[in-house]
Write a structure and sequence with these properties.
By secondary structure, the chain is mainly α. The protein is built from four helices and no strands.
Length: 133
C-alpha cells in the first residue's frame, strides 16, 4: 500500500491574500496604472527619437544623392559636412541606446541630455539643408 503524503500548502491568512479595504485596492490599481503610464510615455519618447534618427538617415541619403550634381569644389566641403552629420547621428543613436538601457534613477538626466543633443543636431540639419538650397 502506497502511503505517499502529498503536501499541499495551506492558503495564507485572508488578510495576506487581498487588500483589506477598498482604499487599498484603489491604491494598488493606481500604482499599476502609473507604472503602465510611465512605461508607455517612456516608449513613446524612445519611439519619437528613433523616428527622428531614421528621418535624419533619410535626409543624409537624399542629400548624398543630390550631391552628385554639386560642382567639384563644393563637393569636398559638402562631404565633410555630411560626415559630421553622420557622426552626430551616430552619437544620437548611442544616446538612444543609453535611454533604452536607463534605469529609473538615470532616466531624467539622460533624457534631458539627449533632448539638448537632439535639438542641437536638428538645428545643424536645418542649417545644412538651408545652406544647400
Amino acid at each position: 500500500m502506497n502511503t505517499t503524503n502529498i503536501h499541499t500548502p495551506m492558503p495564507t491568512a485572508p488578510s495576506e491574500l487581498q487588500p483589506s479595504s477598498p482604499s487599498e485596492v484603489h491604491q494598488e490599481v493606481a500604482k499599476v496604472d502609473q507604472t503602465l503610464a510611465n512605461e508607455q510615455l517612456r516608449q513613446a519618447i524612445l519611439d519619437k527619437k528613433q523616428a527622428q534618427i531614421e528621418a535624419w538617415s533619410a535626409q543624409i541619403e537624399q542629400m548624398q544623392q543630390g550631391m552628385q550634381s554639386v560642382a567639384e569644389n563644393l563637393r569636398d566641403e559638402t562631404e565633410k559636412r555630411l560626415e559630421e552629420l553622420r557622426q552626430a547621428r551616430d552619437q544620437a543613436r548611442v544616446q538612444l541606446e543609453s535611454l533604452q538601457q536607463a534605469t529609473q534613477d538615470s532616466w531624467e538626466s539622460l533624457l534631458q541630455k539627449s533632448d539638448h543633443f537632439f535639438q542641437d543636431l536638428a538645428e545643424r540639419f536645418h542649417a545644412f539643408v538651408s545652406a544647400e538650397n
